[in-house]
Amino acid sequence: MWRRGTLKTRNRAGQALRLAAQAVSRSHNSLGAFYQRLRARLGPQSAIVATAHKLARIVYHLLAHRTPIRDLSAAEYEQRARERDIAALRNKATRLGFTLVASPA
Questions:
Q1: How far is CA 104 from the centre of its chain?
Q2: How far apart, in whole angstroms, are the C-alpha atoms of residue 14 and residue 97?
Q3: Which of 27, 42, 86, 103 could cross-link 32 (Cys pair, CB 3.0–4.6 Å)?
Q4: Number of domains making up the chain
């Protein structure tokens, strides 16, 4: 049986991260673009949880490795996401025995 929706919790760190994810959802940076892509596919609640999880991983990496944050703009994030999608499509076509040819736009 598949679970629908998100679970309720009383973890204050999780609540703070979800609140931060909700706030960053309206920003014009890579995290805002990440939220928008997931919201279109999964819905707003799951997108907030996924964005909060991404924020948690970013905070952990910053604290563990003591590195400065490198923030991308929304356009750079969308460009990288497009390149990832094209590479995945190219790999899938190769596995299926096809070749992708770029059409002139």
A1: 29
A2: 45
A3: 27
A4: 1
Q: Which of 28, 69, 22 is nearest to 45 (CA)?
A: 22
Q: How far is CA 102 from CA 30, 46, 69, 85, 91, in A?
A: 27, 34, 35, 14, 14
AA letter at 6:
T
Condensed to tens digits (0 to 9), the pLDDT of residues 43-75 reads 999 999 999 999 999 999 999 999 988 888 989
Query: What span, in angstroms and rounded, lies between the C-alpha atoms of 77 and 14?
Result: 25
- Please tell me what DSSP assigns to residue 87: H
Q: Residue 73's beta-bridge partner residues?
A: 29
CA angle, corner 16, sides to 14 and 20, nearest 5? 115
Domain with 43, as residue range(s), is 12-95
- 5 is a domain residue: no
pTM of the prediction? 0.76
DSSP symbol at 62: H
Residue 83 lies in a domain: yes
Eight-state DSSP code of residue 102 = P
In a domain, 42, yes or no: yes
